[in-house]
Design a protein that fits this description.
Blueprint lengths: L4 E2 L4 E2 L2 E4 L4 E5 L3 H16 L8 E4 L3 E5 L4 H8 L14 E6 L6 H8 L3 H9 L3 E6 L6 E4 L14 E4 L3 E5 L2 E4 L4 E3 L2 E5 L20 E6 L15
Helix pairs in contact: 3-4
Length: 230
């Protein structure tokens, strides 16, 4: 990542914008750069190089850094960083048991040119990573599917998608933590609790977390498998 200008676009590849008294919003070219920058910021924060930064919040193509003692100096500096590529996901992986029984499974299978069983095998065989969180508390946008498997959102969103619904939209996969309207293509169901205010942390998935879906067929219930569990 660099702040050098892109001759084709005529604008800097990276922009740093002041956001309030102590925050800077860093805009980058794509999700991969946002994830790499988020990882680098967290590495520097853990090393004590960012001072008393309170929050580092990634999104699709931005990262918000809040709690900066000198946001002006940070904004001038961050656009010159040489950010390494996104490192491999940590060895610890959150494994979510999934029944591939979603109402849009057949439609996704047709889009992918494979059987519904093939969709289940593909999703379960993909190593996902939480790029960022949003939409609802506990909802993680998961990257990992190859670009050619991106799927469109539903033309008519559902007024209520049940909690635990596993969906696909564009390049992302995700799990609805609670009932809400939504237009993602629903391919399965999990019993994992994505958001629990009685748990610390409340969110099961955080940016940078490695995630895998485990196909449990039509079993009645399977418990979520957390890192370190046997």
């Amino acid at each position: 990542m660099t702040g050098a200008a892109d001759p084709g676009a005529g604008v800097p590849a990276v922009r740093a914008l002041r956001a309030g008294a102590s925050a800077v919003l860093v805009e980058v070219a794509d999700s991969a750069q946002a994830q790499a920058l988020h990882a680098e910021l967290e590495r520097r924060r853990a090393a004590g190089a960012l001072g008393a930064v309170a929050e580092v919040v990634p999104a699709a193509r931005t990262v918000l850094v809040d709690g900066l003692a000198d946001p002006r100096a940070f904004a001038a500096d961050v656009v010159r960083w040489q950010v390494p590529p996104l490192p491999p996901a940590a060895a610890d992986t959150v494994e979510l048991p999934v029944r591939f029984d979603g109402p849009d499974l057949a439609e996704v299978a047709a889009l992918w040119g494979m059987s519904p069983a093939g969709v289940a095998e593909t999703v379960a065989g993909t190593g996902f990573r939480v790029a960022f969180c949003g939409f609802a508390p506990g909802f993680g946008y998961l990257t990992g599917l190859p670009p050619e498997l991106a799927v469109p959102r539903r033309a008519s969103p559902r007024t209520a998608v049940p909690p635990g619904s596993v969906g696909l939209a564009g390049p992302y996969a995700g799990v609805y933590p609670r009932s809400s309207p939504g237009g993602w293509q629903i391919v399965g169901t999990t019993d994992a609790v994505l958001w629990d205010t009685g748990r610390d942390p409340a969110a099961l998935l955080a940016p940078g977390t490695a995630v895998r879906f485990r196909d449990v067929g039509r079993a009645v219930r399977q418990d979520v498998r957390l890192p370190g569990m046997r």
